[in-house]
Amino acid sequence: MSKAFSGVWATFEYLDDTCAAIKELRDKGFQRITTHTPCPRHEIDHALGNPQSRIPFFTLLGGVTGFCLAIFIIVKMTLMWILPVSGKPVVSIPIMGPIAFEMSVLLSIYFTIGGLFFLIIRDTMRHGKPRSKKYKNYNRFMRDRFGIVVPCDDKALAEVELILKKHQAEEVIVEN
Amino acid sequence: MSQITYGTINDSVVESMVPPGKKWIIGFLMVLSALSMGVFAFSVQLRHGLEWSGINHPISWGVYITNFVFWIGIGHAGTLISAVLYLVRAPFRNSIYRASEAMTVFAVMTAGLFPIIHLGRAWFAYWLMPYPNQRELWVNFKSPLLWDVFAISTYMSVSIAFFILGLIPDLAAIRDESKGLKRFLYSIPALGFKGTNHQWIHYMRGYLLFAAIATPLVFSVHSIVSWDFAMSSLSGWHSTIFAPYFVAGAIFSGCAMVLTIMIPLRSAFPGFSAIISIKDLGGMAKMIIFTSLIVTYAYATEFFIAYYSGAKFERALFWFRPFGEMKWYFWLMVFCNCLVPVALWFKKLRNNLPTLFIISLLVNVGMWLERFNIVGTSLAHGFDPFAWGTYTFEWVEIWITIGSFGWFFMWFFIFVKIMPSIAVAEMKETLKPPMRKKNE
């Protein structure tokens, strides 16, 4: 868990510089790149090769679970506490509709949130992040600056630094 | 407009969150006074019972259920704006959606109070929830009232989750703009968000799914609320058009409330006038025109169905509404909901903020009256002429209604000062990103 981070991170003022740097880094074989942007930008996604999220699987699982749970609750409870109403069937399928729908929606939302946290934590741990105070206290990624973090071994540090400087990074910080 | 940059959006939002000034404090005290009126009146009702309200035989659903439906309707616009307009990429959504989402959450919180207030013995509210018990008392899954419990609880949970999810990147932006204790406090709800590609990719996909799921939910919730009425066999209620009619009405009133809130918000914070453009507010005005037409069509259809069905009880009720002793509620409703929005067809009036604000207030009044017409007049004029009745508003329910506005606006006042009321990340998305090639 407390593995030391080895790599380079840089800040950029312009989006096109950031994208160009990402493309060159990927061409040179650096695939485990983390970027920072103040808002989601498709240009960054394209530069990173359009990675996809697996969130929809969690949503679907939540929806199915909610639907089954609703049916279970209604059938089980109506059979346990029988309430005859105007000669209608005790377990009636049409009346399950609204509750099954609402429960499907509710659980799909909860599962989506759970999936969101799980996937973000997993990806962040896989890619690693700089441990310096300077990185932790850098305040402008959510304001108006773009950033690139490239984990790499000691031998590649100079090469990555060169690429980032070539694309006019504002600051380039080497950490190892 | 062209001076808006990523940085200035942050600055405008941070500026809106500085410690409150005199105007805010005076406004907040007024809101608290309204709330205390409601709390006092409710305590009187708790002590003496529902006889202190105007509820009577035959009008056993009065102002409280009217308020419930009214506030649920208000709560619809927020999720509509966040979810439906997000899916269709409506350009006027971004600047107003955060405040309207907050409005949704607070409106549903307000609406949720009214079934409890209406219970009389409010301390037994938990009997509504289905859980195993030894009282030999059990909920009826065939009742639309129980569906409503599920619908409203789900809607409230989803609205809160949607609201909080949308806030996370913006709270991170505020955290990074703050120092000391404030920074620490904002870092907790920001959940370590740093705008990385791993965060944005899952966040955006999750947000899209939220929007896709919340869209049918918006339509389902008010449909289910309408079934509280339509599933019964009472004239004026037992109608198949109720679900779409209620949904359109909810969007109509919700959009009006968005304008009622956004116009003062825009003038309260000078930085917001560049972000919340007149065009954005005009977009909401167009939504009001559209939904007003649907609502007007629904009113006409109700009368046509009453005439064409040949059902004499239905005909009698729809004669009673415009010409009976409760006719003023009906005609005022028609004036506010069908005639007043016609003014919005004119661009000059649509772009005039004071006019837009007054129209939004009138639409709110009209939509409250619509709910009262549905609830009150149908019950007043049932099948048996011997049981016909009328309704008198009592001070307790008027004060509780005023209190509900106090409760709603209290949350909004607090929200404006502690949360970003403009969606920072989404506003940045609408701007052209900083590019070197263009700048050179």
Compact description:
The complex is a heterodimer of chains A (176) and B (440). Chain A is of the alpha+beta class and 176 residues long.
Profile the largest sheet of chain A: 4 strands, antiparallel
Instruction: Specify the CATH architecture of the largest domain in chain A.
Output: 2-Layer Sandwich
Please state the overall shape of chain B, judged from the principal axes of the Cα atoms. globular
Computed over alpha carbons, the radius of gyration of chain A is 25 Å
Distance between the termini of chain B: 21 Å
Q: What is the makeup of the main sheet of chain B? A: none
Uncertain spans of chain B: none
CATH superfamily of chain B: Formate dehydrogenase/DMSO reductase domain
In total, the number of strands of chain A is 4
DSSP E strands of chain B, number: 0
Helicity level of chain B, as a percent range? over 70%
| Average pLDDT number of chain A | 89
The proportion of residues in beta strands of chain A is 5-15%
What oligomeric state do the depicted chains represent? Answer: heterodimer
Basic shape of chain A: elongated
Q: Which segments of chain A are poorly predicted (pLDDT under 50) over 5 or more consecutive residues?
A: none
State the end-to-end CA separation of chain A.
16 Å
Number of distinct helices of chain A: 6
CATH topology type of the largest domain in chain A: Alpha-Beta Plaits
Strand/helix succession of chain A: EHEHHHHEHE
Q: Indicate the proportion of strand residues of chain B.
A: under 5%
How would you describe the overall organization of this protein?
The complex is a heterodimer of chains A (about 180) and B (about 450). Chain A has about 180 residues and is α+β, with helices and mostly antiparallel strands. Chain A has two domains: about 5-50 and about 130-175, Alpha-Beta Plaits (2-Layer Sandwich); about 55-120, no CATH class. Chain A contains six helices and four strands. Chain B has about 450 residues and is an all-alpha fold. Chain B has a single domain (about 5-15, about 55-130, about 140-390, about 420-440), classed as Formate dehydrogenase/DMSO reductase fold. Chain B has helices at about 5-15, 20-50, 65-85, 95-110, 115-120, 145-175, 180-190, 195-230, 240-270, 270-275, 280-310, 310-325, 325-340, 345-350, 355-380, 395-420, 425-430, 435-440. The mean pLDDT of chain B is about 90. Chains A and B meet through helix 1, strand 2, helix 2, helix 3 and helix 4 of A and helix 1, helix 6, helix 8, helix 17 and helix 18 of B.
